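User: What would this chain look like folded?
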Amino acid sequence: MSMKGGVTALTRRNYKLASDTDKPRATGIVNDKLLSDYLHQVFPSPKQGPAGPLGLQDLNAHLEKLLSEGETPEENQPVEGRLGPQPVVLDHTSGFEGLLFVDDDLLGVIGHSNFSSIRATTCVYKGKWAYEVLISSQGLMQIGWCTLNCRFNQENQGETTQTYQFNNKDQSLCSTCRNGQSLGTAFTNIKMGPGVAYFPAISLSFKESVAFNFGSRPLRYPSWYLPLQDPPTADLMKAHKLLGYIKNVLSTSIDTEEEKLVEKDCAVWKLHGDPTVLVTVAHIFNHFAPLMCKVYLVEDVLMNFLLGILEGGGSVDEHPLIQQLLDLFWLLMEDHEVNECLKLLMMSLLRAYRFSPIIPDLGFQIHYLRLTTAILRHERSRKYLLNNVLYPSVFVFFYIKTPLRVKEAGLEELIPTTWWPTHFDKEGKDEREPKDESSDERLRRRAYERGCQRLKKRIEVVEELQVQILRLLLNNKDKTTGEASRYIFLNKFRKFLQENASNRGQHPTALCPPEYMVCFLHRLITAIRTSWDEGSRKCPGSLSSEDAYVPPQLFYNGKVDYFDLQRLGGLLSHLKKTLKDDLASKANVIIDPAEIQTTSMDDLDEDEEIGAAQRPLGAAAIGGALARPSWLSSPTLGRANRFLSTAAVSLMTPRRPLSQPEKVKVRTLAVEQRTEDDIEGSHGNDGLLLGRPLEEPDKPIADKSLLEIIDGIVMMYNLSVHQQLGKMVVVADEVHEYAVALKDTEEKIARCPARRSDIMEELQKSQKVFAEKLNHLSRRLAWINATIYSKEKMLDVYWLLCVCIRTIEHADGTGSLFAFTPEFYLNVAMNAYSALKNYFSPSNSMEELPGYEDTLTQLATILAKHFADPRIVGTDIKDSLMQALASYVCYPQSLRAVERIPEEQRVAMMRNLLAPYEQRPWAQTNWILVRLWRGCGFGYRYTRLPHLLKTKPEDANLPSLQKPCPSLLLQRHMAELLRMDKDMAASFLNSVLNQLNWAFSEFIGMIQEIQQAAERPERNFVDTRQLKVCATCFDLSVSLLRVLEMTVTLVPDIFLDWSRPSAELLLRRLAQLLNQVLNRVTAEKNLFDRVVNLRLPGLESVDHYPILVAVTGILVQILVDGEKQGTSRAASVLLSDPCFQLHSIQHLLGEPGDSSRPSAIPSRPAVGSLGSSVAPSAAGNSASTERKHFSLSAGSRSSHPKSHFLFQPTSEEDLCPICYAHSISAIFKPCSHKSCKACINQHLMNSKDCFFCKATITGVEDYNKPAS
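Assistant: Here's the prediction, encoded as structure tokens.
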């Protein structure tokens, strides 16, 4: 025994007890009598009568005698009514069917096929037996008993379909309990007799998971039924006795001055190094330590004792006894013993927290979190648990599960009054505070909101404890016993992200469930921001957490590993090769050429390894191990080491060990190789901020380790948090649907005649069902709003959005090095904005966020600048940027944000949108232009397609559009660009016309196939995908026509001013396409009419009106609203086009097509004409002018029929061999082939090769046919 730093140190487990014959009878500390009294006080004898003197030399024998009293016979003796080995586990050798994951303790199981089954190793045939099942998923499973002859298959999955915790069986019946509450008798008159015995069994569907407890742990809800596995009775009795002795030591002190024993409160006991106390406790731990390596004893004895210490309430700081006990553990137990004890204790706490039932005050969860906090306050224990136990299981502690059964969770008492929206706006959305709300509705809503606030306050208690745990794990000052906790946490966190990123889409069972990630992300943001602000207060001039961002050098200096995640500029190995000079000049980062060569060779090696790993494993895979992080899918929280399969199939490709660093990242440090200096830096080393570019401000930032954690938070949001936020909106949608249904039912009840009592009865039943469902859903929605969609959670997502925006802005300032930025930063910026806009409303509003408009403008700047950024090469991220920008310009607030960005960037954005459509994804950019125009075009102000309103005005599920919000500012930029840059205008319009020709031709081909399928006599169905493609081609055709309308309206000179190059050609092409569209759509009893009249699902948007008003808008601009000379040219071109048909114009105007018909037949608008459609207000007063102009033009042509044919060739040989529409008017040099000017001019825009001989055309000359 020695003193080290004021703390007494003992040689563990092999200290020499005071039993030597030469030791004096007095200890030198207390006299014999006081020592004897103290030992008898600590180790009382159950026998009555005076006790003899007791000294330290006799203590060991005395203690062994006390422990041996009352010992039971040897355990694991055969018990009547039970057959099988002890301990009881799942039969992973022969008692299963299908594919299953089984944990290494053979108690947890996860289904990995459609319906897998497994039974236990022990059966019963007589008596009363029970086992527990902890259910961690919500899908289909069947739990009960089966015989040995039961053959698991799809039809017969066992004998009971109950899916809850208890299954009790005796001689004649089988009953079930859930959370200790009996569900009644499941089966009676069970077959008994010779050869009949029953095994615990389960069948479960894919990804469903449970954990069995046959008695290896204390039953959570004990009953008078026997557990299948015998408890360790003898060890349990010893452990309780030893714990009692420890309590006696804690409550008894020796007053050496008064020479008496003093009773005291256990809570104030401290380890002062008193030799008498230490030697006494050492004797106890000599027996107690081995017992604490058994899970049953840890859970039943130690965990309950520690929980009892905290039962008095108050903060964890007010209970230092747990810290003192942990000091004793580390002092008096072997390292392997205390390690195993802490591991079992923490896993028992995780299990208890995870499967605790939800009660109104969340008492169970708070209780377990308080003990976890107390244990983690102990520095040495915390570091051991961080290194060896907590990751990745620690995520369980941050999850607040949503109760599936409102009644069991006590929400009826907490929220006695329910409420749901009953007023909806024209678009069907809930109104937050409707003006016509009655006083009763207002009282109900306010009572419901008060109940929600009560619930929120109770949940906040749990969340605060969870944040305290994270603050302990983020401690970077505890360096006295080795590496600080924060750096252990950071490295484990990074490996967790790597595992989830690498397994996404490959091994879904290896991923952390997204609902865990959502809760963990919010707690981590709170803890990080608190730590950041504490550090910034100590460092004047540094950034606060409000202005936090991730510096760009983290993306290329190799200090942070981003695994295989895509960069904006492509693969990291490629970027290091192509941008090595920029890295050297801008960031002073030098890459060794030899390392680049090594990278190239490693790429080849990696491909070979992947190929080898993907080869079939054959029958050897059966029963093989599949490494995976087992902690989540399995309730046992143990690591699975068995993958059971009854079929000879190949297992999934095993991933590479995480300990190996990525070969392609030649300058990246492996996580386990990093030190604190690599992260924080020291002696001139910038750590994570190594390689600061000149554009990056040299401003102090908080602890650099926090930067990497923030980077991990962004990655985690991208992995699964955003997806989970979208899933939880389903509950709010269900509330809305049931509220609409209830309101509709109540209106029907009010209209129901009194004589129809049968209908009234059915309506009242429906009303009751809807009301009960809404009561349940409204309380569940209150829980979800408090845990996921609260104002605080919204601020967290908003902060994350701002972090991403600032990070992208700083990375953009580095020029070419922007290509190193991971793609997920742009994804999170777009998704976080989408979540704030769509998921958190209507309970919270984006307008209430601080700096909301400035943030919108910043995000608009990023989208406008980077959707066509050449530094971004990934197709997926480009599409995402384009879609985000298209969504951005749909809504007034975000569109105004686009208009607020600097003018130079607005003009650059419009220039990129007007780039030629060929060889790039053009549909999205076209939609953006259309959305900038909606509300300004002819008949283009509707929010729902007029023909659908006419047929089904009450149907809320019809396709709808956002309210028009055109941007006159961006239209003006577009007009200026097209007017000033003639070449760009010509190439843009040619590409639009080309795509219109393609889209409309594809649409016509599709409807031909649909019509042919509909005319077949046999019963057949049109492919849904084909209908979708057909509708998409139609919508594209309409949108392209709208872009042409916008162009003609804004810059009519492009078509009508023939002094501009290509103007005549563009006008002729436009007229040709317009005539083709009109002919196809307006012909009497044509293909288009027949398909529209079929009213096929999926083709709701296909109708005459959308496409005819778009064509009419173009015709009005070129024939009515333009200058006289321009309209004359347009009319001439339109009439001279060979495809022009007079009946198409008459169809548009609703006039009869043939004046020779008898006058007795009244004229009526043609089917599908504008006159028969829902006429929009956009037509205004132009209808009469348009009708007059069209009539004059058509009349001019019909009154001089011969004048048109004067211009036509007399022979087919004189027609252009390309279009067969115009006369030959051009000859090519040097090959002398011929065509019309329109065809060759259009062709030369894309190619210089001759149509016919592929010779290079050097010139084009006019051609006049020689006189015959």
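The first helix runs from residue 32 to 42. If you want, I can go into more detail on any region.
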